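Notes for week 9. Today we move from apo structures to complexes. The key idea is that a small molecule is not decoration. When we ask for a structure prediction with zinc ion present, the ligand SMILES becomes part of the input, just like the chain. The input block below holds both the sequence and the ligand string. Read it once before you look at the output, and try to guess where the molecule might sit.
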Amino acid sequence: MRSDGVTTGAAITVIGQDRVKKFLRNSIRRKRLAHAYLFSGPEGAGMEAMAFDLARTILCDRKGEQACGECKNCMLAAGLRHPDIHVHFPLPVGRNESPDDEPLDRLTPQELETVRREVEAKALDPYHRISIPRANHVKLTSVRSVRRRAALGSFEGGEKIFIILDAHTMTTEASNALLKTLEEPTPGTLIILTTSDTDAILPTVVSRCQQVRFDPLGEAEISAGLVTLHGLDAARAAMIGKLAGGSFSSAVRLVREDLAGRRDAAVDLLRNVLHRPHREMVSLFDDLAGGERADALEVLLLLGTWIRDAMLVSSGRPPEVNVDDAATIGKFAAQYPDFGYPVAIDAIEEAVSDMRKNVYIHLVLQALGIRIRGAAAGARS
Ligand SMILES: [Zn+2]
């Protein structure tokens, strides 16, 4: 039970990923589940949420293609408290830790408290990214714990499920130990590895798992998830959907941030591009280019949503994303009746795509500035 009284039984919602869901449901129906899976894809696409959901479905009393969300096993699984679901993730190495220790044995009380808090957050939101200081690797002790427990029977007499998050962070020793477990699978056990970096996993480990690839989430899937799971209004959800880069974990992080403030800064930049002499524009862009690439990308994405809204307003419709900024958008649309919106939007989309391809950021921004000035002059180039 969550503190607000909402049962977590039905709380594991996997956003999008219909192809993967269909594939796994088929495997469950035909009783053709592999003994080990590798769920791989871009960070935040839902590999971890899907691993929890699969574990819960397998242990659900009703044995359907989907977890019922109501039985005792479903409740325990959703709270990450099921005795037959073992979740491992990167942890700090304890003082004088020996390979026979359990992974948490040598951690300090403070570290244990952080782990407890992070697991709780993960149980409430499977898209939460577990973050523990000094936790750089999935440790040998974690994998040895998997081996030991796999050899024992399950508590409830059903399957035993081991989930290893961020499997690409396994140390070499941990990978080799896991390899042995994968080579001699114990009946009644399922191992699910999740990763955003398959190339960093020992190829022999990869080849012993059935690999399931996840695509980045679509903007609309992310926005819909934010509305349903986080109660956001549609406009803010749409804005975050555009900024999240296909990752629901990034989207959830952005929920807590002051996007309106950053959007306003992006619009200031637009004004400067339109009104300042060329050399001042160059120096503004140099500042932007000198910072983090991700920040510059965010400025462009925010600006893109704003200009798209200005295009709507100029044709007599209300803004869709920057609803809170409707007055400013209206003034802009009135001030630039001939603004070449399609030209500016194309230019921004191209700049975003170039920046994601690591094209030299100064060049991208200079070209963008010139095209946006052209758009303001009503040029159709
Ligand atoms: Zn159930």
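The radius of gyration is 25 Å.
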